[in-house]
Each structure stands twice: as structure tokens, then as C-alpha cells.
């Protein structure tokens, strides 16, 4: 019976939906996390009577047809790149971006990855690095014994050197944007890689040419709305239960049909 297969596709789709929702909720407190949703499409139809077909020798046209759907499929888990709220930390190397753009990170293999997580530190060479120790680009080294680290909205990094009372600019952080930022590939550690879908990276200066501004001493929180996620979770659970009911009903119908031949 086709209803068994159709309902099974619905259960599989809602199972994936719950997995995505659970990942969103799990990353509720993950810095710079961007939530995902699930996009569904109906499967190919069995056209038992095609609409518009000729129904008689006199040229009568069918006003409606008989189309039996095959169920549902998942076509994507698009990521929402909306802005998350900023949380003040007071740490000099905690940076956030308000608006378009990502921080650019140099990986050990020479490739680049991109992140909205500005939880930066200094390594043993004084370089500004991510939590994994990868240098933020362009590489900026804080001089030894420097104090008063400041980062302005354009990403200029300034410090006060020993024996000086004025700040000195020692580097300029870049911000990178993409034509289709939803096309970035997540790779874990709050980082993304570019893909043919995202388009090539476009480096620029923060707070200029439509790029976002940098705020020192704050971090961008996940853009997950827990109330919305819980509502979606309940809806997914109910949809799963309804598809299970269809399988149960189809099974009972098959049992009744089998009983006729006993």
C-alpha cells in the first residue's frame, strides 16, 4: 500500500527536522552560532488521470486529474544569518561584528576560514588568535609589555608602549563578506569555509562600504529564539505522530483486506 511509504517519508522528514531543532537548542549559548531551518518539497506524483487530458472522442477535457503524491523530501537545511544580540564582556580581545562580515582566520594548512565568534586571545608570540590558536587575519602581534589594547569600529588595533603616553596603531583587522553568506559550509569550531555557492570572499575594512562595525569588549550571541524552537519542536513531534497514525491506519486496512481471503 502506497500510504505506508508516503507516511514513512513524512516520519523521516520530521525526524531530520527534530535533529536540526535540537542542534539549534544545543547551541543556544554558542558565540556567533547561526540557526538552521529545514526546507521540504513534495515528491514526484503518480498521474493516474492527467488534468487537461481528452476524456472522450468529442474532445471533452478533464477539468481535474487524479494525482497521487509520493510523500515528502528534505531539500536543504538553510542557515539564518541574522544578527545576534551583543553581550558585554569587558575583555579587550573579545570582538563582535554588527552588520555584514566575518573575521578571517588562517588555518595550519594555509587555507582560510571565517567566523563570527570574536573570542580571541594572545598566543606565546603575542599574536591575536582564535580559541584553537589560529591567527586572525591580517596577523597582528601585540608587543611585549604593551598595555591599553584598543580596537576601534574600523578594526584598527592600538596599544600603549612602555615609556609612551599615547596609543600607537599596530595593525588593522579585516572583515570579509560573501555574496551569499548562507552558502558557506560550516566546519565546526564556530567557523565556515567558502564554497562555489557562497561566492568568493571579499575582504574590506570594517564600518566602510556596507561592512559591519567592530565592537570591542562584546560577543555576538546565537540568533536562536528558544520559544520559537520549542514551538517548532512541538509541531514536528505532532507531525511525526500523525504520520505514525497513517501507518497504523494503513496496517489495519491491510489486515482487514487479508481477513477477506481467509
Automatic annotation (TrEMBL):
Pfam families according to UniProt: Flg_bb_rod, Flg_bbr_C, LlgE_F_G_D1
Keywords: Bacterial flagellum, Cell projection, Cilium, Flagellum
Region called Disordered, residue ranges: 186-213
Source taxon at top rank: Bacteria
Location in or out of the cell: Bacterial flagellum basal body
Domain Flagellar basal-body/hook protein C-terminal residue range list: 216-259
Residue ranges of domain Flagellar hook protein FlgE/F/G-like D1 in the record: 97-159
GO cellular component, one term: bacterial-type flagellum basal body, distal rod
Biased composition (Polar residues): 187-197
PROSITE patterns, per database record: FLAGELLA_BB_ROD
Primary location: other
Keyword Ribosomal protein belongs to the record: no
Record SUPFAM superfamilies: Flagellar hook protein flgE
Residue ranges of domain Flagellar basal body rod protein N-terminal in the record: 4-34
Record GO biological process: bacterial-type flagellum-dependent swarming motility
Quaternary structure annotation from Swiss-Prot or TrEMBL: The basal body constitutes a major portion of the flagellar organelle and consists of four rings (L,P,S, and M) mounted on a central rod. The rod consists of about 26 subunits of FlgG in the distal portion, and FlgB, FlgC and FlgF are thought to build up the proximal portion of the rod with about 6 subunits each.
The family this protein is said to belong to: Belongs to the flagella basal body rod proteins family.
NCBIfam families (alphabetical): FlgEFG_subfam, flgG_G_neg
Protein name: Flagellar basal-body rod protein FlgG
Species in which this protein is naturally found: Bradyrhizobium oligotrophicum S58
Amino acid at each position: 500500500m502506497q500510504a505506508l511509504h508516503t507516511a514513512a517519508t513524512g516520519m523521516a522528514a520530521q525526524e531530520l527536522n527534530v535533529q536540526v531543532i535540537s542542534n539549534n537548542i544545543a547551541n543556544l549559548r554558542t558565540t556567533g552560532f547561526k540557526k538552521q531551518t529545514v526546507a521540504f518539497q513534495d515528491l514526484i506524483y503518480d498521474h493516474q488521470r492527467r488534468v487537461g487530458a481528452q476524456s472522450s472522442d468529442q474532445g471533452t477535457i478533464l477539468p481535474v486529474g487524479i494525482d497521487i503524491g509520493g510523500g515528502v523530501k528534505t531539500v536543504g537545511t538553510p542557515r539564518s544569518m541574522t544578527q545576534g544580540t551583543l553581550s558585554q564582556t569587558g575583555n579587550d580581545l573579545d570582538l563582535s561584528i554588527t552588520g555584514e562580515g566575518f573575521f578571517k582566520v588562517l588555518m595550519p594548512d594555509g587555507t582560510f576560514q571565517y567566523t563570527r565568534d570574536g573570542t580571541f586571545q594572545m598566543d606565546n608570540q603575542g599574536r591575536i588568535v582564535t580559541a584553537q590558536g589560529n591567527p586572525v587575519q591580517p596577523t597582528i602581534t601585540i608587543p611585549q609589555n604593551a598595555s591599553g589594547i584598543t580596537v576601534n569600529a574600523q578594526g584598527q588595533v592600538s596599544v600603549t608602549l612602555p615609556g609612551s603616553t599615547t596609543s600607537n596603531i599596530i595593525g588593522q583587522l579585516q572583515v570579509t563578506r560573501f555574496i551569499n553568506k548562507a552558502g558557506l559550509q560550516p566546519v565546526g569550531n564556530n567557523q565556515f569555509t567558502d564554497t562555489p555557492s557562497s561566492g568568493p570572499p571579499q575582504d574590506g575594512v570594517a564600518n566602510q562600504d556596507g561592512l559591519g562595525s567592530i565592537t570591542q569588549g562584546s560577543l555576538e550571541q546565537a540568533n536562536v529564539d528558544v520559544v520559537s524552537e520549542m514551538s517548532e519542536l512541538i509541531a514536528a513531534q505532532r507531525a511525526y505522530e500523525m504520520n505514525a497514525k497513517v501507518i497504523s491506519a494503513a496496517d489495519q486496512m491491510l489486515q482487514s483486506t487479508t481477513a477477506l481471503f481467509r
